[in-house]
Amino acid sequence: MASSIPVSVPADTAPVEAARGGRVARRTRRLVAAGAGFVLLLALVAAAAPWLAPHDPVRQSLRARLAAPTLEGADGRAHPLGTDHLGRDVLSRMLYGARVSLLVGFAAVVVGSLVGAALGILAGYRGGWTDTVVMTVADAQLAFPFVLLAIGIIGVLGPSFPTLVVVIGLSGWVDYARVLRSQVLVLRSREFVDAILALGGAVPRIVARHILPNVLSTLVVIATLQLARAIVLEATLSFLGLGIQPPTPSWGGMIQEGREYLDSAWWISIFPGCLLLLTSLVVSRSGDWLRDLLDPTLRSE
Amino acid sequence: MRALVTFLAARVARALVAVWLVSTVVFVVMRLSGDPVPLLLPPDAPRSEYARVAKELGTDRPLPVQYAVFLGHVAQADFGRSIHFREPAMQVAMGYLPATAELGLTAFVLAVLVAVPVGVISAVRRNTLVDQAVMGVALVGQSAPTFFLGILFILTLSLKAGLLPTSGRGDWTHLVLPALTLGAFAMASIARLTRSALLDVLRQDYVRTARAKGLREWRVVAKHAFRNAAIPVLTITGLQLGTLLGGAVVTETVFAWPGIGRLAIHSIYNRDYPVVQCVVFLSAVLFVALNFVIELVYGVLDPRIRPR
């Protein structure tokens, strides 16, 4: 019984846990902090892109096209990561591209977690046919490669920021819903919920005051793992030409544009790609570490 | 026996619900996208032409009727004619399917053939340099975006080293890089899971007994431990087979592989919606069918999963 309750509920057992895995937990905490630091740094860089970027990310310069990474280009200016086929500065475009990745990523996570958490809590709390319908739709979505459907939907509706956010967000709602549903099922059967109901407490209040705080740590873990997925999915869609449209710089779009020049000007694709890979790796690992720290019962492999 | 029938019926019902929901989403999205009639006609076509085509497509009827007609067509695997190819959409999609199947199966076989031995070695040599290096690579492989992995392979193995062709379909050398790219995620996942499943089993008492009997280590691993670790590995392996289908869209685009994934992307660019619908629907059916077969296979392999 106790094992299925999130760590945040039984505060009295927390010290025992901490003493057992103290060293490991401390190391994991540091890793999580490092991961969070990386994302924060990226967010700061993205926000400060207009001041940090050495060049205008969309200004073309035919004289300086396809320049290799250099501190003094043909136009007499530094292009530390080279320029692309239109002479635009790769570093500047990467900094601006971080805006798209993080904005779409975080917005998609908000959409996915709101929808997933609401439906998961509803299904777990109400049970009955509500539960059946929600879980049937969840199963159906899992029984299908959602990327394909996302490509179809965006392809037909046309790419735009809201479409991207909603489609990427909805591609992840099932994870939240399934985990929260099972946690709410457990919580609902506990006496304190009956006690509150007996005392005349209202259901929305129980959910807001007693259930949500209990499932919050789980929510954070899933949201972190989903953020990595959302960032990669956005880059993939932009790479396929179905994401953020040019000339707005996005990492996926940059990788796509550099594809034709891979042999002669590898830096156009490879630098943004490496940053994307690093971001995806750091965020998803942070999610794993966070899970080990907050809620080891979620562990799947 | 009755339990088995109930079990099968429930699974079939679930598969059908999934396919029905996907079809409905396809229908709703197509309707949201606006009137298809102008796409089919030249801009200067007379009004009467518009009315004629709308009647032909059925778009002049009320939505519930259109939905019913659509479901009827779906049940017959009829998605209309491709605007670009001027052939039935299903026929077009089926023509591109073999290339995707070839790529997907190769990627899958490659992933399993590499990942399982690697996972076993990692578990047996746990916490050595080899283990840490291999698992590090697997972690990167799991979070690397498929399309970027493909580009890295093209740059290093094909453009710089000149070992393999960059794109297209031809002899077996054309298959290596796409299959490696598509299979990378599955490979990484299977390797990590094989390692952890085997580590769990190696802790069991019967493994200690086998060792105490004086069996050689490789015999303990191969005969006693691995067989018991195989079930969770098979589970994840089956799931990976399905996700390959989604990855195929990206991989086929990167390597100009003439499969249904690339067909889907091209059809979106050409606004050839009958083909887009058809590909989405076809993959849904394939995916659901694959999962169905995999679940049945588990039942055969592991008596514990069989319905009571």
What do these coordinates show?
- The complex is a heterodimer of chains A (about 300) and B (about 300).
- With about 300 residues, chain A is mainly α.
- Chain A contains twelve helices and no strands.
- Chain A has helices spanning about 15-20, 20-45, 50, 90-125, 130-140, 145-155, 160-170, 175-190, 190-200, 205-240, 250-260, 265-295.
- Chain B is about 80% helix and about 0% strand.
- Classes of the chains: A mainly alpha (about 300), B mainly alpha (about 300).
- At the A-B interface, helix 5, helix 6, helix 10 and helix 12 of A face helix 1, helix 6, helix 7, helix 8 and helix 10 of B.
Task: Describe the structure concisely.
The complex is a heterodimer of chains A (301) and B (308). By secondary structure, chain A is mostly helical.
Structure keywords:
heterodimer, A: 301 residues, mainly alpha, 69% helix, 0% strand, elongated, disordered N terminus, B: 308 residues, 78% helix, flat
Helix content range of the residues of chain B, please? over 70%
Strand content of chain B: under 5%
- End-to-end Cα distance of chain A, whole Å, is 21 Å
Largest β sheet strand count, sense and barrel closure of chain A:
none
| Element-by-element helix/strand order of chain B | HHHHHHHHHHHH
Indicate the topology.
The complex is a heterodimer of chains A (301) and B (308).
Chain A: H1 14-20, H2 22-47, H3 49-52, H4 90-126, H5 128-142, H6 146-157, H7 161-170, H8 173-188, H9 191-198, H10 203-239, H11 251-258, H12 267-294
Chain B: H1 2-32, H2 37-40, H3 47-57, H4 63-75, H5 89-124, H6 129-143, H7 146-160, H8 173-202, H9 205-212, H10 217-254, H11 260-269, H12 273-301
Helix pairs in contact in B: 1-4, 1-12, 5-6, 5-8, 5-10, 5-12, 6-8, 7-8, 7-10, 8-10, 9-10, 10-11, 10-12, 11-12
